[in-house]
Amino acid sequence: MSYVLKKTKADRAVDTVLYSGLALFGLATLFPLYYVMVMSVTPIAEVLRNGGFVLWPDRITLDAYRYIFASDRIPDALSITVTVTLLGTLCNLVITSLLAYPLSKKYLPGRNAVLVSIVFTMLFSGGLIPLYLVVSATGLLNTIWALIIPGLVSSFNMLIMKSYFENLPAEVEEAAKVDGCSDLQTLLRIVLPLSMPIVATLGLFYGVNHWNAYFGGIMYLTDKSLMPIQVVLRSMILTPSVSQELGLNVQDLQQLPPETIKMAAVVVATLPILIVYPFLQKYFVKGMLLGSIKG
């Protein structure tokens, strides 16, 4: 026999306030993205007619995107960012898994000392200058590896994966050992296939960080051909001359205001992550709940 809990008027009033607040928060979050997309496809005449503020364009034009991809600057930056994101995320997951799996075993000698040293790096760091000197001394300047290796492992993500591994049934690993699997084979054939939610979650974290990273490009790169999309986007927003940044003639851009070109560049830099995220969302919540750090 099931019972239905009836809500009082006070409960319904609280729900109304909460849902209304969440709806307003959602609109406030989505509106900037919507406005950027609208402005990127609005003709210049309509932009000028409405004083630079358009909520719903009467006509749509893709001239801004044609101008962006007419230059090699944005496509080259996108290719660098895609390469860094895919390669960097793969390296991050491999190293994080290889570090988290042994640390999930309580019988590992020196385990506590290693964990303390890892947590220590979450609280203290050497600073930017020592980090730059290390990257320079290792010959990583002006290479895409400068965007990957300095952030190869996130201590926070490693602890989450370690906690997830600790929650896996020990009997499964014991059965693999009985069948003759080594520790590495157990990790690759048993543990990781059972840990796809946390792998996908941390892969999303690492991937988004790589895609949105611009600080490393500013610090370690001077070669413009290696600049990721976020650095190029930052330069476009800060520069008064979009044509100079894209390497196009001023006459090519006279039909569009600089703000429209910048809005289109923002959409190009943001859209890939928005497309990928829904496919990983089902793993995201499950992975975070099962991999949450115990007290």
From TrEMBL:
Q: Which residues form a coiled coil?
A: none
Record protein name field: Carbohydrate ABC transporter permease
Report any Pfam family annotated for this entry. BPD_transp_1
List locations, semicolon-separated: Cell membrane
All copies of the ABC transmembrane type-1 domain together span: 78-280
The record's listing under PANTHER family reads: ABC TRANSPORTER PERMEASE PROTEIN MG189-RELATED-RELATED, POLYGALACTURONAN_RHAMNOGALACTURONAN TRANSPORT SYSTEM PERMEASE PROTEIN YTCP
What keywords were assigned to this record? Cell membrane, Membrane, Transmembrane, Transmembrane helix, Transport
SUPFAM superfamilies associated with the record? MetI-like (SSF161098)
> Where is it mostly found?
membrane
What does UniProt give as GO cellular component? Answer: plasma membrane
Q: Which organism is it from?
A: Paenibacillus aurantius
Q: Which GO terms describe its biological process?
A: transmembrane transport
